[in-house]
Amino acid sequence: MEDRRVRYTKKVIKETFIELLEQKPINKITVTELCSQCEINRATFYRYYDDVYDLMEKLKSQYVSDLKAAISLSKDDYTISGFTSEILEVILMNKELSRILFSLKNGKDFLNDVLVIAHQKCVDKWNRYGKNVPQEQVGYISTFITTGTIGILNEWIQNDFKESPSDIANLIESISHYGIAKIIYGEN
Asked: DSSP characters for the chain?
């Protein structure tokens, strides 16, 4: 377990780094600038990180670990909105970082590891309970839902998290189960 001072220092570095990322791209952020704003010396920064890119990778890695943990907490017989709500709570707890990661060019690539888990959970469930799902289409259906979910998450983040996580989870569940016809036209 890290000492309280180490946790505090890393927290300040992370928060300041995110503030800087909201203002400019990572390639314009220097360790010197970051340390100056954190009021720490460069040696302290280098004790924990190689450079700002290493810091970014560690932030992404922790974020992905938190998202994976949220999915893993779901039971095998979860609903889509159940595990989606868990993911949305992690995203909401990390608003600024989420906004930054989703806005980066190819930034959504960090979700691939998370989506592999979600995709596999969907495929496993449908293989167990989906009697009418043609086996050769299960992967396509899961891919459609998971990539659509990324689009909805991106829209939610870009709209500054206006809706609650449960509203977004229910929207994803509704589209996943009934398609858009029911939502748009009120059809079954």
From this structure: ---HHHHHHHHHHHHHHHHHHHHS-GGG--HHHHHHHHT--HHHHHHH-SSHHHHHHHHHHHHHHHHHHHHHTS-TT--HHHHHHHHHHHHHHTHHHHHHHHHSTTGGGGGHHHHHHHHHHHHHHHHHH-TTS-GGGHHHHHHHHHHHHHHHHHHHHHTTT-S-HHHHHHHHHHHHHHHHHHHHH---
